[in-house]
Automatic annotation (TrEMBL):
InterPro entries: DUF3025. This is DUF3025 domain-containing protein. It comes from Undibacterium amnicola. It comes from the Bacteria. It holds the Pfam family DUF3025.
Amino acid sequence: MTKFYSVIDWSRPWLVSILPAAEKLLAQEDWRVALNHTADERKLRNHRNLPLLFIPQEELPEGIAYESHISHAGKVPTRENLHDFFNALVWLSFPLIKRQLNALQAAQIESLGIGKSRGPARDAATIFDENAALLVLENSERGRRLLNCLREHQWQQAFIEHRHDFGEVVQVWSFGHALMEKLVQPYKGITAHAWVVWVEPDFFVQDRRQQAQQLDAQVSAQLQSHTLTTADYTPLPVLGVPGWWDGQDPAFYADEKVFRAKRSSEKSELRT
């Protein structure tokens, strides 16, 4: 029988961040059983130190908010669809970041309740959870120069003139599960909310497992020490990332519907 996740092309570069976790699940016949087995094997816990368990959506008690149930019960309601499948893989790949995001979102729900508006802090956490990409930059002049190009929407400079910097002093790691879901059927206009992570040069010589562990710990610490707002992100048209799509010539980046010039009203400040 064809499984719902059979449409995913695992060779895509934006799935590298979750590929090790995915390979463990895909090797088993029942992905739900494999998911909870892996969570138990890795001793995953929520912010209350409760063991993490992925449950069918219908087991979420009526009237209980999704994030609150994860916070108070350690149970993640998970539907059989791409959105929740990617969410589960992100939990396996970046458990410390996910744990902190859940703590932030659950605290906001407890404080403000569930209303029509999430409020700025919960909005910012939801954006991170759903649509973030980790923009990992070497803490050097090269890294700062590239970040400035991206902030200022200088796309030709960032993606063509500084193309050789990608892989050497900058990496892009997909994080948001809604972002990954959109990329199953990629289109040029898909844009992530980039979150900056500064690293030392030795980060880029580590293997991917070590890099993932470092990012998980480092970003989780950032989220604990920083009051998250929607101003923390910069737009990143992800198919413009060198090597992430075919035909990335000057004409590709000249498409102003995707690679927009910066509006005068847009602030240039971004957290560093």
